[in-house]
Amino acid sequence: MTDGSRRARAFDRQARPALEVRNLHKYFRLRKGFRSSTLHAVKDVSLTLEPGRTVALVGESGSGKSTIARILAKLELPTSGEVLLDGELTGFRGSQAAYRRQVQMVFQDPFASLNPFHSIAHHIERPLRIHHPKLTDAQVRDRTVDLLERVSLGPAYLDRRPHELSGGQRQRVAIARALAPGARFIVADEPVSMLDVSIRVGVLNLLADLQRADGLGVLYITHDLATARHFSDEIMVMLRGEIVERGPADAVILDPQHPYTASLREAAADPERLGRLRDEVRAEMGGR
Q1: CB 128 within 8 A of CB 140
Q2: Is the pLDDT at 6 greater than 80, yes or no?
Q3: Domains of the chain: residue spans and CATH
Q4: Nearest CA among 232, 147, 217 for reference residue 187
Q5: How far apart are CA 83 and CA 103, in angstroms?
Q6: Among 176, 184, 206, 263, which has the minimal tally of Cβ within 10 Å of its Cβ?
Q7: What is the rounded end-to-end Cα distance, in angstroms, of the chain?
């Protein structure tokens, strides 16, 4: 192989989408007594997630959004389809350590996603020790403090338990835990739906700040078109397992082409009010 062809292959590899889903299907077998049926939760979904960009996956409950999130996090097996990382196929069996190090999930419920019996330090130190076993105890503690500071908490929270924190603070801990292995992509499954409105904007601003600082790719799963518009580059609208509309965030919101997208838009909170609230929170945080 010539040097020129090696350079060409390297360029092609860099040009490929970093996290890609192709023709994803997921069936669930349902049983009720002696009867069985098939639920087609995800139907031929393809999407790409690039570093430094946020893709919002929007739809009502039961549309298949969380199923896609769980498949990307390797918590669910697809019926068919492919998941590629940097152009390479990723399996769903055997060791997934390298993949999980790069693709992490932030769950919807900050009250259930943290073990109440362990300290905040334990929740962040554990992924550090699993994925970076060569770190010394001192290095693990230093990185833990740094991660807490990056999510606007700090060392005062190290020895606290989850029940001592507010919902927003718990979700910040969950984000720090997701960053601990060195994640390049965050799958955020309804990360603010259980938080108060003002706290929601602060957590979304935090994700946006971390994205800009680290070049993270974020898949933001939500039923809220208003926040999807203000905190994503692209919106994909999902209905009964299928993507029915996709495009730049403003275009999808301001000029919806599918009736379902239009109905979601009508049901959404006032996007201009949310935008003003977002700006107010950013001002209070010093423009972050």
Answers
A1: yes
A2: no
A3: 16-284 (3.40.50.300)
A4: 217
A5: 12
A6: 263
A7: 48
